[in-house]
Design brief:
The chain is mostly beta strands. The protein has strands at residues 19-31, 35-47, 64-76, 79-88, 91-94, 99-102, 105-116, 121-128, 147-154. Strand 5 (91-94) and strand 6 form a beta hairpin.
Length: 160
């Protein structure tokens, strides 16, 4: 590699005021014996109408996102679980690295956990993106696939 040049980047921003707006709503419904259903929705948008500045900053945020989940705490003795479906709308990614479209994607995450009170710990086994939906979350980023994991965590606050 030659050092005949020094790479640099100059951060720039729009001179005009740029407005963004959005909102989020979520609900959790708890029912029988530690079971819960939950959902949340997020809406976000950047208003570029009326802008005269040639530099429009990248918002890099999907307009719509949705999560729907179901979880149970100690559903049988110390056994619990969670499952979450996530959907993300397509969006435009703009940065100094490059501009491009990020396709809509969905994920399914599932986890089983078991508490060991006498050991002050919890064992977790699960999968993120369990359906192996190959996707990117930012333009130019690597493709993300399935992740299967196991973890044993300790709660040191419970030690007497």
């Amino acid at each position: 590699m030659t050092r005949a040049y020094d790479p640099y980047q100059i951060a720039t921003n729009a001179n005009d005021d740029v407005s963004t707006y959005g909102g989020a709503i979520g609900v959790v419904y708890y029912f029988y014996r530690g079971l819960a259903a939950e959902a949340n929705y997020t809406y976000a948008v950047m208003d570029t109408s009326g802008l005269t500045d040639p530099i429009i900053p990248g918002f890099n945020t999907p307009r719509h996102k949705l999560n729907i989940g179901f979880k149970g705490t100690r559903i049988y003795k110390e056994l619990g679980f969670s499952a979450n479906f996530k959907w993300v709308d397509k969006f435009r990614w703009e940065s100094s690295f490059g501009d491009g479209d990020v396709a809509s994607y969905y994920l399914l995450d599932v986890q089983l956990n078991y508490n060991f009170p006498k050991l002050y710990s919890t064992l977790r086994i699960g999968g993120s993106n369990l359906l192996d939906n190959q996707h990117v979350e930012a333009y130019g980023s690597p493709t993300i696939g399935r992740l299967i994991y196991a973890a044993w965590s300790f709660n040191f606050d419970d030690f007497k």
